[in-house]
TrEMBL record:
Gene Ontology process terms (BP): response to stress
Alphabetically ordered keywords of this record: DNA-binding, Transcription, Transcription regulation
Encoding gene (name): mhqR
Molecular functions (GO terms): DNA binding; DNA-binding transcription factor activity
Name used for this protein in its record: HTH-type transcriptional regulator MhqR
Pfam (any one): MarR
Organism: Geobacillus subterraneus
SUPFAM superfamilies according to UniProt: Winged helix' DNA-binding domain (SSF46785)
HTH marR-type domain ranges (all copies): 20-152
């Protein structure tokens, strides 16, 4: 029995769609599993993942305008004030006005915040390392390259459609 060429193309399209859906599910489940382990570790330090992300950003990148923190840690701008308030109340960061532009407020890590990150970050890094240890070094490099390619492709797909 000979198959029509058009049907073959439709079958291929269906298989490609199914494979894309499967990739999305596997990627989502893997992200969730890794994220759950890392977040559990972060909670053990007495902060939530968002607070930790802000502290880690300030520790590694220096003072940041409040308006830009959300973009850098993938957090809605409305939530930044709440997170910064919590960290400020814990004595881990302070707000300070920009000298050149009074409309801009910076978040700065305090000495206490610096000591906190220096104490917990090595354990955090170790948790991440242990969590992804199912992959060899070569597989991690492949995963990094493939996920970057996927991310850039998704970004451009959205741009091209919008």
């Amino acid at each position: 029995m000979v198959k029509c060429k058009g049907l073959n193309v439709m079958e291929q399209k269906g298989q490609a769609l199914e494979q894309s859906l499967k990739l999305f599910i596997v990627l989502s489940r893997a992200y969730r599993a890794v994220s759950d382990q890392v977040n559990k570790s972060i909670h053990s330090f007495g902060v939530n993942p968002t607070e930790f992300a802000v502290l880690e950003l300030l520790y590694h990148k220096g003072d940041q305008p409040l308006q830009q923190i959300g973009e850098k840690i993938l957090l809605a701008s409305g939530s930044i004030t709440y997170v910064v308030d919590k960290l400020e109340n814990k004595g881990l960061i302070v707000r300070r006005a920009c000298e050149r532009d009074r409309r801009v407020t910076y978040a700065s890590i305090t000495e206490e915040g610096r000591r906190f990150i220096e104490r917990v970050f090595p354990e955090h890094a170790e948790t991440i390392h242990d969590t992804v240890s199912a992959l060899t070094a070569e597989e991690k490099e492949q995963a990094i390259a493939l996920l970057k390619k996927l991310g850039y492709g998704a970004k451009h797909a959205l741009t091209d459609r919008g």
